[in-house]
Design goal:
Blueprint (H helix, E strand, L loop, with lengths): L9 H6 L1 E5 L7 H12 L5 E6 L5 E8 L3 H10 L10 E4 L8
Antiparallel strand pairs: 1-3, 1-4, 2-3
Length: about 100
């Protein structure tokens, strides 16, 4: 899924992204997309499922929505548990500068 990477600046895209934590290690991008649509009626533009250095799931993803309003709706409503695991939903924070 690539929701127009070239069309928007990175800062604009990050404002439409939410953090979803608590994902099961076997959760897929498709699982996250289906869960957000079912719970909030908003279809993600992109899902960035994070992995550790070993390639295993880090247990969280960044979900990009079509608009800041859609992202706010997801953050405001939250998400119900997925695969029996409670999820944490919050606005994405800017990355920390590397030193």
């Amino acid at each position: 899924m690539n929701g127009g990477w070239c069309d928007d600046s990175r800062a604009q895209r990050m404002r439409r992204q939410v953090f979803v934590g608590g994902l099961h290690v076997n959760a897929s991008v498709g699982d996250v997309v289906r869960h957000v649509v079912a719970a909030c009626g908003r279809r993600p533009q992109d899902v960035f499922l994070q992995r550790g250095r070993s390639g295993a799931s880090a247990g969280f993803a960044y979900v990009e929505l079509a608009s800041v309003e859609d992202a706010a709706a997801v953050v405001g409503a939250g998400l119900p548990p997925l695969a029996g695991r409670p999820l944490v939903v919050a606005w994405r924070r800017p990355p920390r500068p590397r030193s």
